Amino acid sequence: MICYLLSLFFGGKLGLSATWSYTLAGALLLVVAVMTRFSMGSFLLFVLFIAHAMVGAVELGTDGWITNITGNLFTSEKGRFLFIWTSAIMFTLRFCADFLEKKIGLSPVGILLSCSILACIGLNLSSGIVTFGGALFALGVYAVGKTFFWPTMLAVASDRFPRTGAIAISMMGGIGMLSAV
Fold first, then answer.
1. Helix pair angle (108-126, 149-160), 10° resolution
2. Average pLDDT of the segment spanning 92-117
3. Which of 76, 121, 126, 168 could form an SS bridge with 71, CB 3.0 to 4.6 Å?
4. Which pLDDT score, from 0 to 100, does residue 130 have?
5. For residues 171 and 41, what is the distance between their CA atoms, to the nearest angstrom?
């Protein structure tokens, strides 16, 4: 997964041809395979890597174009305000994760499921916004939904695969960042 994303990075950012970028990524994959003695690893961890790539695309990718979309509907100043609105919601709610997990009783997987439902509803609502108040509501629902994706995915990997330590969490973060490139 990481080698494929690196091949896209090599081709896009470094300007290598597709052949060279895939060759370089394949060589990296071979080096990792030899270092791990061709161990396949856990299938669930691979699924979490794929899911985190989607999380990175949703969270970081959407943040990259949300001001452009809302700027086309409203003034660019209102678009920036909507970006600040979603960021402020996420900043505030990330301090409440312990409350959600312990007091309400949501497990990390339950938090991910709830967040994905809210994010989906928020994105669908935002596709039909025409007023600034509607944008505040739709993007507020979307912000609540996407708040816990990134940190909870890292927590799930840490809880389910404690022997991987910081390596798996770092790989997940890297996969998320590379998927938004």
1. 160
2. 84
3. 76
4. 84
5. 14
Quote the pTM value: 0.71
Give the integer Cα–Cα distance in Å for 146 and 13.
27
pLDDT of residue 29: 82
Per cent of the chain over pLDDT 90 is: 12
Side chain identity, residue 99: F
Q: Taking a C-beta distance cutoff of 8 angstroms, is the pair 168, 157 a contact?
A: yes
Task: Provide mean pLDDT across the span 48-57.
Answer: 85
For tokens 């409350």, the residue is 99
Q: Side chain identity at 131, as an amino acid letter?
A: T
Compute CA 105 distance to the chain's CA centroid, rounded to the nearest angstrom. Answer: 24
Retrieve residue 51's tokens.
């899911």
What are the Cα distances from residue 148, in Å, to 34, 68, 91? 36, 24, 10
Instruction: Judge contact between 62 and 147, C-beta under 8 A.
Output: no
- Give, in order, the Cα–Cα distances in Å from 141 to each of 17, 37, 98, 122: 41, 46, 20, 5
Half-sphere exposure of 115 (CA within 13 A, CB side): 26
